[in-house]
Amino acid sequence: MRIYLLAVGTRLAPWITAGFQDYAARLPRECALRLTEVPTAKRTRNTPVATVLDKEGARLLAAVPDGARVLALDRSGERWDSPTLSTAINRWMLDGRDVALLVGGPDGLAPACLQRAEHCWSLSPLTLPHGLVRVVIAEQIYRAFSLLRGHPYHR
To answer: Does the model's pTM come out above 0.90?
Structure first.
């Protein structure tokens, strides 16, 4: 199984890329984590937010691999603890389908992304910078996989 983190935004701070890559590299092949960045939509003072969201949403949905299970990351989603995520990852691995996690840009996710998602997951009721979300997701996937394998990382 591969987990695709599809995220709006390019050229983020080097520490974000380093943090994501560190955790992604720790994962074994059977739970590979890959990042696909899509560019943010051009914004002007007069561009409606709905237009921006629609463009970014179309780019995210176009990047979803065929047959992948789609999960949207949104603060209105269900909050999972690490054991719950671990159980979900185990189910996904047994199911054999790849997973696509959709992370929006500064304005969030397009309604089309939320509608396409099979599940909506919230990392926190807090609004997090979308770059930081990448690192948190990578760390939590690594933690959940470690829990599955009985590794001492999860305590």
So the answer is: yes
